[in-house]
Write a structure and sequence with these properties.
Layout (H helix, E strand, L loop, with lengths): L2 H8 L3 E5 L4 E2 L15 H13 L4 E5 L3 H7 L5 E4 L1 E4 L3 E4 L3 H10 L3 E5 L11 H11 L3 E5 L3 H9 L4 E3 L25 H10 L4 E4 L5 H9 L4 E4 L1 H4 L1 H16 L1
Parallel strand pairs: 1-3, 1-11, 2-5, 3-4, 4-7, 7-8, 8-9, 9-10, 10-11
Antiparallel strand pairs: 5-6
Helix pairs in contact: 2-3
Length: about 250
């Protein structure tokens, strides 16, 4: 998909993250979340429902890219692969192997880890992006956790900077103005700062639970907003209702 068309298609809209499970480096895939929807038919139905509701794109892991492409023809797809490594740490599409597989599966864009954490290859973030761009005709979404990482990724050639990991790396919690809790609000501080100075579009992602939160991100300058568990993990949504109602009884 042409870059300008892609950006126009997603502008001001909600991208729904439809995912289940992560991969262990060198081992079989295992389920760590949203296991109830790990069947490909279930994930395809989830993506179709998101599209019917007005989603402007789908963000999904490798094993669902081709399935969701067929289920939602024409809808922009951002592909990624989550790899567990470094003693239960996680990286997003960390090597060219995963990028190649995502492109082959039909992803319009690939989300890659652009944090300053140790990598799984011998490339810097800038070298990794350069190699992707020199090999494939695909958009690069840079998943970052700090303002500095976002600016570095944009300078290195990323097409989009995404706040996916803000508050999820040990060093980004304070800079995002968060406490490090899953119940924290989205990283509005980093979203706003990036939107003011970044040379590429900024997509907001991470802990968006309500429409009002997504609207606030757009007002702060986000090009689009990715929403995951609040839409595509019914178990998480149910748990929030159940917890609040139990606390009311107490």
């Amino acid at each position: 998909m042409d870059k300008s068309v892609f950006f126009q298609r997603i502008k001001g809209g909600v991208i729904v993250s439809c995912q289940s499970g992560v991969a262990l480096k060198g081992l079989e895939l295992f389920e760590d979340y949203n296991t109830e929807f790990s069947d490909p038919a279930c994930m395809a139905a989830m993506a179709r429902a998101a599209a019917a509701g007005g989603a402007v794109g789908i963000r999904t892991n490798l094993r669902y890219v081709d399935i969701i492409r067929e289920a939602t023809p024409g809808l922009p797809i951002i592909g990624l692969e989550k790899i567990i490594c470094f003693e239960n740490d996680m990286r997003i599409t960390p090597t060219m192997d995963e990028v190649s597989a995502l492109v082959d599966a039909g992803a319009d864009a690939v989300a890659i880890d652009c944090t300053h954490r140790p990598r799984l290859d011998d490339l810097s973030v800038a070298e990794f992006i350069s190699r992707i761009k020199g090999t494939f005709d695909v958009l690069v979404f840079a998943d970052i956790s700090t303002l500095e990482e976002g600016l570095a990724a944009a300078k290195s050639g990323a097409d989009v900077v995404v706040t996916t990991l803000a508050g999820y790396t040990p060093y980004s919690i304070e800079s995002a103005g968060l406490a490090g809790s899953p119940s924290d609000p989205p990283a509005y501080k980093i979203i706003e700062e990036l939107a003011k100075v970044c040379s590429v579009p900024v997509v907001a992602e991470g802990r968006f639970r309500t429409p009002d939160q997504a609207v606030k991100a757009l007002r702060l300058g986000a090009h689009a907003v990715v929403v995951g568990g609040a839409i595509s993990i019914p178990r998480y949504a149910t748990e929030r209702f159940a917890k609040a109602m139990r606390e009311q009884e107490d």
